[in-house]
Amino acid sequence: MNSLPNTEREAALRTRRAFLTMGVGAAVGYGGWSWLRSRPEEGDVEWPLRRVLRGNETIAEAYFKDSHRSPEFGPSQVTAPRQNGEIGLGADFEPDRWVLSVHGFDSTPTVQVTMARIRELPRVEQITQLNCIEGWTTVVRWAGARFADFTAKYAPRFHDARYVGMQTPDRAYFVGLDSASALHPQTLLCYEMNGADLTSEHGAPLRLVIPVKYGVKNIKRIGTIIYTNERPEDYWANQGYDWYAGL
Ligand SMILES: Nc1nc2c(c(=O)[nH]1)N[C@H]1C(S)=C(S)[C@@H](COP(=O)(O)O)O[C@H]1N2
Ligand SMILES: [Mo]
After folding, report:
1. Which atom of ligand 1 is nearest to the CA of 202?
2. Is 49 a residue whose pLDDT tops 90?
3. C-alpha 137 to ligand 1 mean position (Å)
4. CA 172/CA 81 separation, integer angstroms
5. pLDDT tens digit string along 189-204?
6. Same domain, yes or no, for 30 and 86?
């Protein structure tokens, strides 16, 4: 099963259901309210109530930043992998020429980061669920670098950007993330899956693993990362799905 205590687990499920069926606004009125009230105080007594007034977006960000951890599993709980989604994974890709392009909202030049540099970041292993909006779930053992560590090293001046956008090299698939979720400690830039190098169909050389979000946000074959204060476009949000797609 998973490591969350029952009450937390139930709260997470309730919130997940609320997010799914009613969206963020309703979640705050439904599961969200008990969450707000049951939160421990953090010095500033008025937190988080004052933030409610700033709108749902801030609630979602605060929720992911401070309290939401996705369940982790043991090695024996890893399931058979599944492959889903090929947008942006075209055959004309040349892995040997791949480099990650990183840019932000100011006019400083784009930074190019190689796989060797990414492998030098602290290596994190994590066994978490991948939850597709189609209704299936896999448990996967991932290895890679924390996106927060990557940001601290290669984009520190953009740490306070509100959003992060990621695109495949051909720009056919793209995701937008609130930066609290992107900088969450369980959000990884991954190069290994179940003990082996990532295969092309799973997003080699580098894919995002963000277990606090549905599968759609776990972009495979990242080519570009953009730090921005304007909400980035998102492939599935453009098709009408919830932009946050949080669990
Ligand atoms: N580039 C790209 N990344 C993508 C997709 C896609 O179509 N293209 N599909 C997403 C969806 S809907 C899911 S469920 C996961 C599936 O990841 P997997 O194939 O490694 O299981 O990838 C996500 N990342
Ligand atoms: Mo998915």
Report:
1. 20
2. no
3. 12
4. 24
5. 999 999 999 999 999 9
6. no
Token digits for 243? 């932009």
Residues of the domain holding 24: 1-38
Does residue 33 have a pLDDT over 50? no
Same domain, 77 and 169: yes
Task: Compute the distance from residue 239 Cα to the ligand 1 centre, in Å.
Answer: 15
Ligand 1 cavity residues, CB under 6 Å? 82-89, 130, 132, 168, 173, 202, 215-216, 218-221
Backbone angles phi, psi at 112, to 5 degrees: -110, 125
Q: What is the pLDDT of residue 107?
A: 83
The tally of domains found in the chain comes to 2
Could you report the per-residue pLDDT of 206-240, keeping only the tens digit for each?
A: 999 999 999 999 999 999 999 999 999 999 999 99
Asked, for residue 246, whether it belongs to a domain, the answer is no
Instruction: Over range 100-124, report the average pLDDT.
Output: 95
CATH number of domain containing 167: 3.90.420.10
CA distance 81 to 138: 7
Residue 211 and residue 128 share a domain? yes
Residue 242 domain-assigned (yes or no): no
The answer to whether residues 124 and 216 belong to one domain is yes
Residue 151 shares a structural domain with residue 51: yes
Query: 104-108 long-range contacts, Cβ below 8 Å, gap at least 24?
Result: 104/155, 104/157, 104/158, 104/161, 104/226, 104/227, 104/228, 105/158, 105/161, 105/227, 105/228, 105/229, 105/230, 106/157, 108/157
Tens of pLDDT along 175-187? Answer: 999 999 999 999 9
